[in-house]
Specification:
Layout lengths: L4 H10 L4 E4 L2 H8 L4 H5 L7 E5 L2 E10 L15 E5 L14 H11 L7 H11 L6 E4 L8 H8 L4 E4 L1 H7 L5 H23 L7 H14 L3 E9 L20 E10 L2 E11 L4 H20 L6 H14 L11 E3 L6 E4 L12 E6 L2 E3 L3 E3 L2 E6 L5 E2 L8 E3 L1
Parallel strand pairs: 1-5, 3-4, 5-6, 9-17
Antiparallel strand pairs: 1-2, 2-3, 7-8, 8-9, 10-11, 10-12, 12-15, 13-14, 15-16
Helix pairs in contact: 8-9, 10-11
């Protein structure tokens, strides 16, 4: 299961909630394993929900547009019930024998008359679950504008409270299934970086290398979500899209690339040199790598993001880059690319046992570009494990 059910129940107890509603793409996926089509196609207006009650945390109630109710076949959780809204038609000739999957979809679509609106379906589900006079947390970031107020109006005896922060807190500690997906996403990402670096030759453009990275991600079943690939001094403006700059001898190649695989993010950074780097580049990169390695070895459950930030920056400075400054040196990762805790100077959130955090030490300098290494790390009381596998050293392409 992706869902950390025990942690969710503890949060419901702490917040005195009888139930909680998932409404964003990430949280619906986390609860059910279903990657909602509506929430992908229309992330600001599309609606799809999952309702979890405290007494049956592993059996969500699923609420979807009737045309997308076939997505229950993707569920990794036993669904307690299903509710639909809207209009959609699947014809069935009288003499047609249905498969088991077809029968399941027909039952789900016809078991109840579809509600007129997503809100009406949600109200019906909460009422049928006995929650009309209970305290219910709602993932307010996924609700259509005005729905939270209308939900409170239509269920006046209930206490409807915002719960997006609760969902984010629950997801900070990863289940074994989540770790496996994060590990798989890292494999997709780093193999794509290797494929892109392999085509580097004099005269190739940033766009061509970026296209190869994205092709390699797609060939493994992933989706490239952020492709930051720049040559040489261009990397100091790394948030700009890869352009038509050509690769020349002596250039660094900066990869800071994100992809999503099975709903989970990977964010990895690597530096290649097209020809032997000068001494300053090598010395500065070695300081970045030493700082990252010190953080990987030092991080422990119970540390704050601020504590890990401070020891990482200090390690970089004492191993060859005394000028090093950063606003953060990493972040949590999972169903979002950036989750808490942030490894920054103001972060008081705790790094918990079985959290996955990205640890990075980027350095940007005008006239030079960027030197950067970044990897996901599983943090446990039994020891830490880097989820990526490719070498983090400065690589030289002859």
């Amino acid at each position: 299961m992706l869902l950390n059910a025990n942690r969710l129940v503890n949060k419901l107890d702490t917040e005195k909630l009888d139930a909680i509603v998932a409404a964003t793409r990430e949280n619906v996926l986390y609860v059910t394993g279903i990657d909602s089509v509506a929430l992908r196609l229309s992330p600001h207006e599309g609606q799809c929900y999952a309702v979890i009650t405290r007494d049956r945390p592993n059996e969500p109630c699923f609420i979807s547009f009737v045309g997308e109710i076939d997505q229950i076949l993707d569920s990794v959780a036993p669904l307690r019930s299903t509710y639909t809204f809207g209009e959609f038609y699947r014809e069935r000739p009288k003499d047609r024998v249905l498969s088991q999957d077809e029968e399941r979809i027909e039952r789900a679509a016809l078991e109840r008359k579809p509600a007129a609106t997503p809100l009406a379906a949600l109200v019906q589900a909460l009422s049928d679950l006995g929650l009309a006079d209970k305290r219910v947390g709602v993932d307010e970031l996924g609700l259509r504008r005005g729905y939270l107020a209308q939900l409170r109006e239509q269920l006046p005896r209930s206490q409807i409270v915002e719960a997006s922060d609760a969902w984010q807190w629950v997801r900070r500690v990863k289940t074994p299934d989540e770790v496996r997906r994060l590990e798989a996403a890292a494999r997709v990402n780093e193999h794509a970086v290797l494929a892109a670096a392999a085509i580097a030759e004099e005269g190739i453009t940033e766009k061509e290398v970026a296209r190869e990275f994205e092709r390699a991600v797609a060939s493994q079943g992933g989706l490239a979500t952020l492709t930051l690939i720049r040559f040489g001094r261009n990397a100091v403006t790394g948030q700009v899209k890869p352009g038509r700059t050509v690769l020349t001898k002596g250039d660094t190649i900066w990869f800071d690339c994100d992809c999503v695989y099975q709903g989970y993010w990977s964010d990895i950074a690597r530096i290649y040199c097209f020809g032997e780097p000068d001494g300053y580049v090598r010395k500065t990169y070695e300081a970045m790598l030493a700082g990252q390695q010190h953080a990987i070895e030092s991080v422990r459950p119970g540390m704050t993001g601020k504590q890990l930030f401070e020891l990482t920056v200090a390690a970089v400075r004492r191993t060859g880059a005394p000028q090093y400054r950063r606003h953060h040196v990493g972040h949590g990762i999972g169903l979002y690319g950036y989750e808490r805790p942030t490894l920054g100077p103001l972060e008081d959130a705790i790094i918990e046992d079985s959290a996955v955090i990205n640890i990075e030490t980027p350095y940007y300098e005008f006239g030079l570009g960027a030197l950067h290494v970044e990897d996901p790390v599983l943090v446990t009381a039994r020891g830490n494990r880097v989820l990526s596998t490719t070498g983090r050293e400065l690589r030289v392409l002859e």
